[in-house]
Amino acid sequence: xxxxxxxxxxxxxxxxxxxxxxxxxxxxxxxxxxxxxxxxxxxxxxxxxxxxxxxxxxxxxxxxxxxxxxxxxxxxxxxxxxxxxxxxxxxxxxxxxxxxxxxxxxxxxxxxxxxxxxxxxxxxxxxxxxxxxxxxxxxxxxxxxxxxxxxxxxxxxxxxxxxxxxxxxxxxxxxxxxxxxxxxxxxxxxxxxxxxxxxxxxxxxxxxxxxxxxxxxxxxxxxxxxxxxxxxxxxxxxxxxxxxxxxxxxxxxxxxxxxxxxxxxxxxxxxxxxxxxxxxxxxxxxxxxxxxxxxxxxxxxxxxxxxxxxxxxxxxxxxxxxxxxxxxxxxxxxxxxxxxxxxxxxxxxxxxxxxxxxxxxxxxxxxxxxxxxxxxxxxxxxxxxxxxxxxxxxxxxxxxxxxxxxxxxxxxxxxxxxxxxxxxxxxxxxxxxxxxxxxxxxxxxxxxx
Length: 449
Hints:
By secondary structure, the chain is α+β, with helices and mostly antiparallel strands.
């Protein structure tokens, strides 16, 4: 029924439309009808022409947004490890195949006001190659975190520039309980190794870190740390104050800038810490063990008196002079292997044996400064493994370098303001007292703030 009704309505509509057209054609003027027909044909023709033009344009024209950009060839990245004897020009020649455009690189450094890259063995240089022989970029990260880049631009050739990193500086305060060795305690308290080694150097002339510290003693340190954003390793650390509470005894060091602008450290009594001898010729955190004075010789098989100490460390670990002096001997010496003897004045002499190598410029007669690297740990001569045989002689007699009272040379009488010293000591002492309370509440191994 529904379909039938719709059909009838359509028929009636069609009949009405036909009737309207017949009436209109009978009564409308021919001029008006003709004009209407002409306008209709013109509009229809114009519309068709526009449609044709639009179709042609679409076929022959591509809008800018639709243009497919040609993909640039990706550069292959090579992380080159600098080998002994290599420099920037030899690395360039290795990857470019020649030195034809190397002069452009040197000129780019000059225009940018940068020094040409100095490379050390073992460092990394990033080389970007578009194709064999075409170096599009060289990049190297410097010790201070800045990045030097040499880039080939298609319009201006090679250009050089330097990017400075974002440096974050923060002062940190750490207080911890000694529960094991000093290094393990510091590691547990997240104190950087650089701070640990500096603490050992600053306190080393007064205590033996391998023997004098007992479980329950406390440590407090305030230090400034500089880091590159996003990097874990610190660029530098500077200790502002530190203290060790050994039983009832408080040992402290406080940093102060004198009238001459130089920074110096003072002890808890306000006494200037002068150019004291370093306790260890190897950074403390690099030592794996210390051997006794009397021992069974590992090769000769007999008990011998050992007039020094053996510091076990990996081959290549830097060895430094414990004070200013001059080299009285540097060379191979039988069972001692590669050996260095340094005279420091005041009848004080140090000897380093079994070295793997000597530092550049170390030879008989050369002057050295406190902390200067003179060689590296090795296993030359009569030795069964890498270690440093370290001997200290005072007034012609060998002494134990780990517990002897080390000499000091004070050349400056500048003093620290008493109020500053007292305020710092009061703050340090309060931290130790808080640490003791934390020990009681949390237990010995967990106590740290």
